[in-house]
Design goal:
By secondary structure, the protein is of the alpha+beta class. The longest helix is centred in the N-terminal third of the chain and has 80 residues, at 2-81.
Length: 754
Amino acid sequence: MKILNKFRQKNKIQKIKYFFFISCVIITITTLIWLSNYSILYTKKITQEQYESDYMSISQAYSHVTTGFLNQAETALNIFANHDILINGTKDEITRFLVKNHKLKPNFLLNMFYADKEGNLVTSENKHANISDREYFIPALNEKPGNFIVGNALYSKTSGKMTVHIVTPVFDKEGKCKGLIGSGVELLTLHNTLNNVKIKTKGEAFIIDKKGVYLSHPNTEYIMNIFIPKDDEYKELSSLKLAQQRHGIYKAKSADKKDVYVFLDPIEQTDWTIGVSVPEEEIFKLYKKLRSIQLTIIFVLIIEILVFIILGFIYITIISGSYDPITNLYNQEKFEKKARKMLKQFEGSRFILIDADLRGFKFINQTYGEEAANQILIKFANLLKGETLKFNGLCAKGYADHFYVFAKIESPSIAMEKASKSIEKIAKELKSKDIHAVAKYGITFLNSDRKIQSRTKTIRTLIGEASFAKSLIKENVTKTFEIYSPRIEEKINYEHKIERQMEDAVKNDEFFVMYQPKIELSTDKIIGAEALVRWNSSDPELGFLSPAKFIPLFEKNGFIEELDFIVYEKVFEFLRNQIDSGNNVVPISVNMSRNHTKQDKIDNFISRFVSTFNKYNLSPDLVEVEILEQSVDNDKIILQQVIDALHNNGFSIAMDDFGSGESSLNMLSSIPIDVVKFDQNFLRNNSSLEESSDFITSLVDLGKKLNKKTVFEGVETKEQRDFLRSINCDVVQGYFYSKPLSENDFIQFVKDHI
C-alpha cells in the first residue's frame, strides 16, 4: 500500500509538471500570436516613425562630422593667426612663413593665404590676387580675435576650384587688425567625405548654403547650383526653401520626379544645412517585407523556444569550454571562430572590432585582492555585453583583462557615434566609491574593399590593429579610445621594416656612439660626456634614423636590452683605447633602459654589465649609469635594488630626465642617487626664464641640500647658461657648448677643454 501511494504521488507530480509545461507553451504561443497581430496593425506606422527618427539622427551625425571638419580648419587658422610672424611680421616675412610652413595645415585644406586690409592676397604657393570684392572680406576684418567667417561657395581666384573659404582676422601687437589669414575647403572634398558613406540603400546626403546652393551632392553637376522642382506642387521645397527651413522632415520631389523624404539639420557655426533624402518607396519597401516575414518569425521563435527547452542542458554542457569561467563571455578561440563565420555570412559588408581593457587592473588586483578584481571584470563584462547586444555583435574575453567586440555595421561614422555613446555610458557605470576602474579602447574597421588573404588572418589582423591603436593612448589619461587608420598602418609597416633590419644592423655594425660633452659651470671645463646611440642603416629606404624612430620600438619589442650592451661595449672599448693612446679621458655616462628594471631582469643585467665592464680593465669612476625617472614607476624597492647593486660595484648613478615623470621629491630625498639630471623641458617650455626661475632655483637648491650633483640638459643659450651658473648649478649639457660628437671630434674637444 505504501509503495502504491508513493507511485500515485509521483505520478501526480509528473502530471502537474506536464500540465504546467503545456500551460506555459499555450500561454507563450497565444501571446506571440497576439503580438503578431498587433505588430501587423502598427508596423507601417512604427516603420515610418523609426525611419524618421533614424534619418534625423543620420543627418545630425553628418552635421557633427562636417562641424568637426570645420573645427579642424579653424584650429589650424587660429595657430597661424596667433604666430609671432603673423602678429609682428611684414607682408614679405608672412609670405615666406606661409611658403615654408604650408605643410603644417590639415591635408584637406587648400593653400593657406594672407591678405592685408586692402585685400592684396598671397598664398602659401606664392600666388597673388585681390579679394577685396569677396563677400567675406569686410565682415572678417571687423570680427573679434578668434572669430571665424565661413564664406559662400565660389571659384577660387588662385586655384580656380569650387571652394568655401574660412577666414579669421589677424591683429598686430597693439590689437589693431592688419589683415586676415584663411584657407579654403574644396567643395569636392566635402562631397567625397559624405559620398564615401553609404546611407541604407538609396539614401543621399547633401549640403546647401543659405542661398540654396549645393556645396555637396552625390551628383556633382548639382554642386554650385540651385535646384527648383519642375512641378508647381513642390516649388516651395526648392533647395533655397530647404535652406530657409534648416531643420525638420519634409516630403518633396527628386530630380527624377520620385517622392522622397528630406531630413534637415543645421551645421553649427555656419549658415549651412545638412540634408538626407530617402525615396518613399524605400521606407514602405521595408514595411512590406516586414509584413511578409512577420508570421515566419513567430513560427521560428516558437520552434526555437521548444528546441531550447529540450536541448538547453545539453547545449550548455557542450559549449561550456567555449566560455570564460569568470565573465561567462566567449573565450578568444570561440570569438575568432564565430567572427570568421560572420565574415563568411555577410561577405562584402563592413565590420567593427574593438579591443578594450581596464587601465591599472594589475594594481587593482594587487591592492584589493583577486576577488575584488574579478568582480570588476564581471561588472565591465556585463556592461560591455549589454551594449554589444544592441548592435547584434559578438563580445568575448581575451587574455588577462582584454575584451573584444565584433559587429556588422552600416558605416564607420554611424558606428562611431553609437560606440562613443556606449563608451561614455560604460565609464559612468564603472565608477564606484572605493575603486575607480578606467577602460581604454582600440577600434578598427573592416570595409568591403579590405583584402586580406585568409579569414584566420583577418580576425587576428583586426585584433592586432585594434590593440596597436589602443597602445597609442596608454599614457594618455584623458583619451579613452583610438581609431586605427592607414596612417597607423604605414607606421606599423615602417616599424616592421625597422625590426626586419635590426638584426642585420648589428651584424653590419651600423649602430655607433656619439658623445655629448658635460661642462662644469664654475670652470667652463669638460668633466664628462653622455654616450648617445645612432643608427646609419645600409637600407637606402631607412638611411640615417634618429633615436626617436627606433628607441621606442626597441623598448616595445625588447631589442633595446641588446642594443644597450652594444653601446656599453663600444663605450668601454673607446675608453680603453684612449687610455692606451695616452689621451686624456673623462667619465662617460651610459643609459640604462627601463626594460632592465623589471624585477625578473635586474640580477641578469647587473651580472652582465659588470662582466662586460671588467673585460676592459677600467676604473669604475670612469662610468656613470643614467636611469630614467619613468623607468621605475615610483617603485622605490626596485630602484633601491638597482642602485645598491651598481654602487657595490663602484659605479655612480644619475637619475635622468627628473621632472618628466610622476616621481615625487620625496623619492629624490630617500633614494641614494649621486647625480640628478633635470628634464630639459624646464628650460625649453619657457620662452623666458622669468616665470620658471624660482622653480628651477628651488630644484637646484634641493639637490644641493641633498648632496646631489645637479645637471641641466638642453642648455642652448647664453641666457640659460648664465642663469644656471648664477644659482650654482654644477654641470650643464647642450648645444650652447656642443652637439653630440663623433669619436674623433670628441677626442679633439677634450683636448681643447680639459
